[in-house]
Amino acid sequence: MKIKSAHIDGFGKWHDQDFDFSASPQVIFGSNEAGKTTLATFIRSILFGFANAKGKNRYQQYKPRATSTYGGSILVEDHGTLYRIRRTAGKGGGLVTVTDMDGHRFGEDKLAKMLANVDQDLYQAVFSFNQEKLANIKDLNPDEVHHQLKQVGAVGSRQWDQLIASLVKRGDELYKPRGRKPQLNRHLDEYRRLTQQVAQANRKYDQYVAANRDQQRQKAAVQKWQQEETDLTAQVNRLDQLSRLWPIYDAWKKGQPQAAMNNGVAPDDVEQVNQLRGQFNGLTAQLGTLRDESARLQKDVTQFDQDELADYHQHRYDYQRLQTALLQLQSRDDQYHQQQGRIEQLFAERNRLQRRYGHQLPKPLSEQETVTLQSLLGDYPVSATRNRRMSAWLLGLGAALFILGMFGHHGVVMLMGLIVLAATGAWLYKANNEASRSTNHQQASLQRFGRLHGLTNFPVSEWLPMQADLYRVAELDQQIAN
Question: Which long-range contacts (CB under 8 A, 24 or more apart) does 362-370 make?
Answer without folding.
Answer: 362/453, 362/454, 362/455, 362/470, 363/453, 363/454, 363/470, 363/474, 364/467, 364/470, 364/471, 364/473, 364/474, 365/453, 365/467, 365/470, 369/453, 370/464, 370/467
